[in-house]
Specification:
13% strand, 10 helices, 2-enoyl-CoA Hydratase, Chain A, domain 1, globular, 9 strands, 6-stranded mixed β-sheet
Length: 300
């Protein structure tokens, strides 16, 4: 698949997705958003991909929504290149909030990252604001270069939370800090990002991608891909559970199915024989029969 606004490369089991509009500070428009979603479709379908790294080309990570067309980017009544031209209006002129055309595009992107079957590492090379900050929240591991900066600037642009950030941000930093950061809209330095828990580490800019690849390679070399896919969804979806019994039910299914799998045998054998494992099960063909469990009536 060919892309215009992103780069997508796979090497040594690691997919690197690069936002690639450096002359526009990697600003996010409908074309880039749809391409990022398509890239995650590719990574999920490719058993050779064990982890995904997301970063930006040039000096910035992502300068937020592409405002080159003015405020029309936020106006659902305006036709924007690359965006669904279907009207979000009812015949009487009122908004049909349940229509696909009324949905926040950034939210579609966040939900696609949330649903990823591969672990996602955000490598924040420079500044990211708005969707450029929010899209990082559903990623599993976030690291920043010393030049990394993020700002949740919604109110400064006259809008509100987008990209599902009202759900993700309080879960990452706590509700009080999430509101503080969003009410002020101020830009946080790399060290501040680490202090509030938005990133796990800060490194020199030249070491950012090598460090991200080091993290990804540790996952790729040592872990079972089916286990990772299940654990990723178990962890994220447990955030909405109202009792630990819900986690116990899912974990029990996982132990029953994975414990009897060839992967479990290989995991034990490689440990005993003191070698790297070679897990045979694949995400594309060997997910257990209870997956996706959240679509069952008892979990809806």
């Amino acid at each position: 698949m060919e892309f215009n606004d992103i780069l997508y490369e796979v090497e040594d089991g690691i997919a690197t997705l690069t936002l690639n509009r450096p002359d526009k500070f990697n600003a996010m428009g409908p074309v880039m958003m749809n391409e990022v979603i398509s890239a995650f479709d590719l990574s999920d379908q490719d058993d050779n991909v064990r982890a995904v790294i997301v970063t930006g080309a040039g000096k910035g990570f992502c300068g937020g929504a592409d405002l080159s067309k003015g405020a029309d980017i936020f106006n659902k009544d305006k036709k924007i290149e690359g965006r669904d031209a279907t009207s979000a209006r009812n015949p009487d002129g009122t908004f049909n909030y349940s229509s696909d055309a009324a949905r926040d595009g950034g939210g579609k992107l966040a939900l696609r990252i949330y649903n990823s079957l591969k672990p996602v590492i955000g490598a924040i090379n420079g500044a990211g604001v708005g969707i450029g900050a929010s899209m990082l929240l559903p990623m599993d591991i976030r690291i920043a270069s010393e030049k990394g900066r993020l700002g949740f600037v919604y109110a400064r642009r006259g809008i509100v939370f987008e990209c599902c950030s009202s759900w993700f941000l309080p879960r990452v930093v706590g509700v009080a800090k999430a509101l503080e950061l969003s009410f002020s809209g101020r830009i946080l330095s790399a060290d501040e990002l680490k202090d509030v828990g938005l990133v796990s580490e800060v490194t020199a800019i030249d070491n950012l991608l090598p460090r991200a690849r080091e993290i990804a390679k540790e996952i790729a070399d040592n872990t079972a891909p089916v286990s990772i896919a299940l654990m990723r969804q178990m962890a994220w979806r447990s955030l909405g559970m109202d009792h630990p019994m819900e986690a116990h039910k899912i974990e029990s299914r996982g132990i029953c199915t994975r414990g009897a799998s060839p992967d479990a045998k290989e995991g034990v054998a490689s440990f005993v024989e003191k070698r790297l494992p070679d897990f045979p099960c694949k995400v594309s063909t060997d997910m257990p029969d209870y997956f996706p469990w959240w679509e069952e009536p008892e979990y809806n």
